[in-house]
Specification:
binds S-adenosylmethionine; 224 residues; 8-stranded mixed beta sheet; globular; 6 helices
């Protein structure tokens, strides 16, 4: 579903201290983009920022970098973050936004960044075999994440799409991740503290069950 362009989104984003204009320049030193040095988590394909804004508000002891390829989406997210933090009387000092194609994410995140968790929420399912490699959970992508994810840390993945979920379970397992937990029905799984994304709310309203897994990367960072 394509979002109608909001005229204000990109100009406001560009003027915001939350937005990182040149993410390559932070490669290997992402902590410098935040007020405090603390564990770095990354959300890949953050869309309109509903998840990132709520997660960062609830977890002031984590730095969250939210990445999307669409500056229009990020502009909407920027408003959401500022509004939510203002309502709660806090400065958004533990969240940053950047625009980047995640297919090349290792050009902006390095092993030294020591990412302690990755979130992938409702990425595009790319149902045709010739497009599988564009999936954010495809083995080609997992190989990139393994270069900067701290050993012992997790990727948390949610989707509405049955085929993408089935394939992703295999991608993770076959690429050295341990599946610590999974569900085919998140709402009835007993999982506590779920934060709903914009797409999640939409799919739930349509009666679609949400699938989720937590995959742990046990190994050394690849390339070390
Ligand atoms: C289906 S939306 C989900 C958005 C949000 N995570 C949610 O659950 O509501 C997928 C998002 O991923 C972004 N995206 C898709 N491919 C991407 C890529 N290669 N690099 C960065 N972002 C990408 C899109 O711009 C879009 O915002």
């Amino acid at each position: 579903m394509r979002m109608r362009k909001k005229k204000w989104a990109v100009p406001e984003l560009m003027a915001s201290p939350l937005y990182i204009k040149e993410p390559e320049s932070f490669r290997g030193k992402w902590q410098q983009a935040f007020e405090k040095e603390q564990p770095l988590y990354v959300e890949l394909g953050c869309g309109k920022g509903g998840y990132a804004s709520q997660f960062a508000l609830l977890h002031p002891d984590v730095n969250l970098l939210a990445v999307d390829i669409s500056s229009n989406m990020l502009g909407v997210g920027r408003r959401k973050i500022d509004a939510l933090f203002a309502e709660n009387g806090r400065a958004p000092d533990n969240i940053r936004l950047t625009e980047y194609n995640i297919e090349h994410i290792n050009d902006v995140i390095a092993p030294e960044d020591d990412v302690q968790r990755i979130f992938i929420n409702f990425c595009n399912p790319w149902p045709k075999p010739r497009h599988y490699k564009k999936r954010l959970t495809h083995p080609r992508q997992l190989a990139l994440y393994k270069t900067f994810l701290r050993p012992g840390c997790e990727v948390r993945f949610k989707t509405d799409d049955d085929q993408l979920f089935e394939h992703s379970r295999e991608y993770f397992a076959e690429n050295g991740f341990e599946i610590l937990w999974e569900t085919f029905d998140l709402a009835n799984s007993g999982f506590e503290g779920n934060i709903k994304t914009e797409h999640e709310a939409m799919f739930e309203a349509e009666g679609i069950k949400i699938k989720m897994l937590i995959a742990r990367w046990p190994g050394e960072k690849d390339g070390e």
